[in-house]
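A protein record in our archive is deliberately plain, so that people and models can read it alike. The record that follows is passed on verbatim for readers who wish to inspect the format.
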Amino acid sequence: MPLAKRGSVVLQTHERRGDRGRLGTDSVQFLSPALAALPFERWIELHVYSSEERNMPTVSVIVPAYNAAKTIVETLESLRAQTFSDFEVIVINDGSTDNTVEIVQAFGDPRMQVFSYENGGLPVARNRGIERATGEFLSFIDADDLWTPDKLAAQVQALREHPEAGVAYSWTQFIDEQSRFLFAWKPLYHSGDVYPQLLLENFISSGSNLLARREAIAAAGLFDPTLKSVEDWDYYLRLAAKTQFAVVPQYQILYRRSSQSMTTKIDVMERANLTVIERAFRQAPASLQSLKGRTLANVYRYLAKQCLSNSWDRSGLRQAYQKLGQAIAAYPPTLLSQETLRIVLKLLVVQFFPQKLAAQIVRFINKTLPLVRVETPAS
């Protein structure tokens, strides 16, 4: 029997949220043929019975991996160090040409499985992991990021304590290629209906953060394979349109910034962000349309910070000024915000002081104005 019952559940969810002026039945969904063809008996097994009753793990951790030999050991070690142990690890080998698969297999941990496919990109790899997941809850971690040992335990507890919530998230710290601390965003405590806050900015910060109930994942669908850098923001918006969020007020995600990361590709990031914004505001209710200018300003200001983080040469500074100007044009009050003034101060320091002295001043600013920290580029 095909998954007609599951489809009706998703439709009912759309209608319920649509009544609130949120996403209606025409919202973007990315349902895979594999999920659509799931036998009804299998759907009942996964959605009606508890993980204990069906003898399956409570949590499925999905790890997309492409040529991750240099980092995946540390990532998997951070999973093995979790104080919550009832989980499976699904590594999706996304066409790696190095020895990623052999490294995973060498762990010899029965909770860890690796599945190999031709390269499809990060969203496709996550979707393949979703299709193989058997847990009551699903979580994602990229093959170069880390979790603190209490991450899963705290997020599972948050969802147990808040049955109305379908998603739990924690705070993120950023690390470099040697796992050294770089910076952290200001702590935020958004919970419940977080859709308006997520329209303004992706406060979840990375794709290695959330823990979601299986039902929430089924309602949101799959990741959009056409997006190249902000597919996580798009996905979080779709989740927020369907369910409430619970916050774990701890820094538990260590997101790795590298010279090859997507955050260094400003033009790609800008195009992808604008795509998500246009899609989101086409579907957002009239009461939230006034947020669009602020959302654009937040994105352009974020891009300005990335330009400043990536390079202190003339081209990088020029691009940072340009993005900051676009932020102010989109929402003029942005000019007077502390975050904008902090970026302007650092731009002036970098522009008019020798690099070594500028680096010292920027570090001083980071210590005395720790709201948002911009790391100094490697010399």
